[in-house]
Amino acid sequence: MESHGPRRLTSLALALAASGSFAMAVPAAAQTTTVRTTRATTVTAVTTAAPRTSAGKTAARSVSREKANALKAARQYLAMGPFSKRGLHNQLTSRYGSQFSKAAGTYAVNNVKANWNAQAVRAGRVYLEMGLSREEVRQQLKSPYGEKFTKAEADYALRHLPR
Q1: pLDDT of 140-163, one tens digit each?
Q2: Based on the structure, what is the number of domains in the chain?
Q3: Least confident interval from 34-48, 53-67, 145-159
Q4: This prediction's pTM
Q5: Do the record's keywords include Signal (predicted)?
Q6: How many angstroms separate the CA atoms of 113 and 81, rounded?
Q7: CATH number, domain with residue 94
Q8: 107 and 124 inside one domain
Q9: Is 79 inside a domain boundary?
Protein backbone atom coordinates (compact mmCIF):
# COMPACT_ATOMS: atom_id res chain seq x y z
CA MET A 1 0.00 0.00 0.00
CA GLU A 2 1.33 3.44 -0.91
CA SER A 3 2.11 5.65 2.09
CA HIS A 4 0.56 9.11 2.17
CA GLY A 5 2.25 10.42 5.29
CA PRO A 6 2.05 9.60 8.96
CA ARG A 7 -0.98 7.78 10.35
CA ARG A 8 -2.97 9.32 13.22
CA LEU A 9 -5.43 7.93 15.70
CA THR A 10 -7.17 10.16 18.17
CA SER A 11 -7.30 9.05 21.78
CA LEU A 12 -10.90 10.31 21.94
CA ALA A 13 -11.95 7.85 19.23
CA LEU A 14 -10.23 5.02 21.10
CA ALA A 15 -11.78 5.99 24.43
CA LEU A 16 -15.27 6.29 22.98
CA ALA A 17 -14.93 3.03 21.10
CA ALA A 18 -13.71 1.25 24.24
CA SER A 19 -16.74 2.50 26.16
CA GLY A 20 -18.99 0.85 23.60
CA SER A 21 -20.81 4.10 22.87
CA PHE A 22 -19.11 5.02 19.65
CA ALA A 23 -19.43 3.85 16.08
CA MET A 24 -17.95 5.50 13.04
CA ALA A 25 -17.91 5.12 9.32
CA VAL A 26 -14.71 3.79 7.89
CA PRO A 27 -13.38 5.49 4.76
CA ALA A 28 -12.59 3.04 1.97
CA ALA A 29 -8.89 3.93 1.98
CA ALA A 30 -8.54 3.73 5.76
CA GLN A 31 -6.47 1.17 7.60
CA THR A 32 -7.78 -0.50 10.73
CA THR A 33 -5.85 -1.50 13.82
CA THR A 34 -7.12 -3.81 16.54
CA VAL A 35 -6.28 -2.69 20.06
CA ARG A 36 -6.88 -4.70 23.23
CA THR A 37 -7.84 -2.70 26.30
CA THR A 38 -7.52 -3.66 29.97
CA ARG A 39 -11.28 -4.33 30.22
CA ALA A 40 -11.00 -7.25 27.77
CA THR A 41 -12.63 -5.07 25.17
CA THR A 42 -11.43 -5.21 21.62
CA VAL A 43 -11.41 -1.92 19.80
CA THR A 44 -10.94 -1.62 16.09
CA ALA A 45 -9.37 1.75 15.51
CA VAL A 46 -9.34 3.50 12.18
CA THR A 47 -6.36 5.47 10.99
CA THR A 48 -6.31 7.60 7.91
CA ALA A 49 -3.54 9.38 6.10
CA ALA A 50 -3.00 13.00 6.99
CA PRO A 51 -3.60 15.26 3.97
CA ARG A 52 -0.65 16.47 1.95
CA THR A 53 -0.06 20.08 0.98
CA SER A 54 0.88 21.09 -2.56
CA ALA A 55 4.53 21.12 -1.43
CA GLY A 56 4.21 17.44 -0.50
CA LYS A 57 4.44 18.02 3.25
CA THR A 58 1.90 16.49 5.57
CA ALA A 59 -0.64 19.06 6.71
CA ALA A 60 -1.66 19.26 10.34
CA ARG A 61 -5.30 18.37 11.06
CA SER A 62 -5.38 20.00 14.45
CA VAL A 63 -8.51 21.97 15.27
CA SER A 64 -9.13 23.55 18.65
CA ARG A 65 -11.76 22.01 20.87
CA GLU A 66 -13.81 25.23 20.65
CA LYS A 67 -13.84 25.14 16.84
CA ALA A 68 -14.76 21.45 16.81
CA ASN A 69 -17.60 22.13 19.26
CA ALA A 70 -18.80 25.10 17.19
CA LEU A 71 -18.88 22.89 14.09
CA LYS A 72 -20.88 20.26 15.97
CA ALA A 73 -23.31 22.94 17.18
CA ALA A 74 -23.65 24.30 13.63
CA ARG A 75 -24.63 20.85 12.38
CA GLN A 76 -27.18 20.53 15.19
CA TYR A 77 -28.70 23.94 14.43
CA LEU A 78 -29.00 23.09 10.73
CA ALA A 79 -30.69 19.79 11.62
CA MET A 80 -33.30 21.73 13.63
CA GLY A 81 -34.15 24.30 10.98
CA PRO A 82 -32.93 26.50 8.13
CA PHE A 83 -30.20 29.09 8.67
CA SER A 84 -28.31 31.48 6.43
CA LYS A 85 -24.54 31.51 6.79
CA ARG A 86 -24.68 34.88 8.53
CA GLY A 87 -27.64 33.86 10.69
CA LEU A 88 -25.88 30.66 11.76
CA HIS A 89 -22.70 32.60 12.58
CA ASN A 90 -24.76 35.02 14.69
CA GLN A 91 -26.44 32.12 16.49
CA LEU A 92 -23.11 30.49 17.23
CA THR A 93 -21.40 33.66 18.47
CA SER A 94 -24.21 35.59 20.13
CA ARG A 95 -24.28 36.05 23.88
CA TYR A 96 -27.91 34.91 23.54
CA GLY A 97 -26.87 31.89 21.49
CA SER A 98 -23.98 29.47 21.88
CA GLN A 99 -21.40 32.13 22.81
CA PHE A 100 -18.53 30.75 20.73
CA SER A 101 -15.74 33.10 19.71
CA LYS A 102 -16.06 34.83 16.33
CA ALA A 103 -13.14 32.72 15.06
CA ALA A 104 -14.85 29.48 16.11
CA GLY A 105 -18.14 30.62 14.55
CA THR A 106 -16.39 31.51 11.30
CA TYR A 107 -14.61 28.16 11.25
CA ALA A 108 -17.93 26.36 11.80
CA VAL A 109 -19.91 28.12 9.06
CA ASN A 110 -17.02 27.71 6.62
CA ASN A 111 -16.70 23.98 7.32
CA VAL A 112 -20.26 22.82 7.96
CA LYS A 113 -20.72 22.06 4.23
CA ALA A 114 -24.22 23.51 4.09
CA ASN A 115 -26.00 24.32 0.85
CA TRP A 116 -27.04 27.89 1.64
CA ASN A 117 -29.39 28.05 -1.36
CA ALA A 118 -31.22 24.96 -0.09
CA GLN A 119 -31.37 26.54 3.37
CA ALA A 120 -33.00 29.62 1.84
CA VAL A 121 -35.60 27.43 0.10
CA ARG A 122 -36.35 25.65 3.41
CA ALA A 123 -36.80 28.98 5.18
CA GLY A 124 -38.94 30.33 2.34
CA ARG A 125 -41.28 27.33 2.54
CA VAL A 126 -41.86 28.02 6.23
CA TYR A 127 -42.81 31.64 5.51
CA LEU A 128 -45.10 30.66 2.63
CA GLU A 129 -46.85 28.17 4.92
CA MET A 130 -47.34 31.02 7.43
CA GLY A 131 -49.28 32.90 4.74
CA LEU A 132 -46.69 35.50 3.70
CA SER A 133 -46.75 36.71 0.09
CA ARG A 134 -43.79 35.92 -2.14
CA GLU A 135 -42.54 39.51 -1.81
CA GLU A 136 -42.84 39.34 1.98
CA VAL A 137 -40.89 36.07 1.90
CA ARG A 138 -38.16 37.72 -0.17
CA GLN A 139 -37.92 40.61 2.29
CA GLN A 140 -37.85 38.31 5.30
CA LEU A 141 -35.11 36.15 3.79
CA LYS A 142 -32.89 39.15 2.96
CA SER A 143 -33.57 41.27 6.03
CA PRO A 144 -30.70 41.90 8.46
CA TYR A 145 -33.40 41.62 11.15
CA GLY A 146 -34.80 38.43 9.62
CA GLU A 147 -33.02 35.45 8.11
CA LYS A 148 -29.96 37.33 6.75
CA PHE A 149 -29.67 35.42 3.46
CA THR A 150 -27.83 37.11 0.60
CA LYS A 151 -29.87 38.66 -2.22
CA ALA A 152 -28.73 35.84 -4.52
CA GLU A 153 -29.84 33.16 -2.02
CA ALA A 154 -33.22 34.85 -1.51
CA ASP A 155 -33.70 35.12 -5.28
CA TYR A 156 -32.77 31.45 -5.66
CA ALA A 157 -35.32 30.50 -3.00
CA LEU A 158 -38.11 32.44 -4.72
CA ARG A 159 -37.33 30.73 -8.04
CA HIS A 160 -37.57 27.32 -6.36
CA LEU A 161 -40.62 27.81 -4.15
CA PRO A 162 -44.04 26.62 -5.28
CA ARG A 163 -46.26 29.26 -6.83
Answers
A1: 999 999 999 999 999 999 999 998
A2: 3
A3: 34-48
A4: 0.63
A5: yes
A6: 15
A7: 1.10.10.10
A8: no
A9: yes
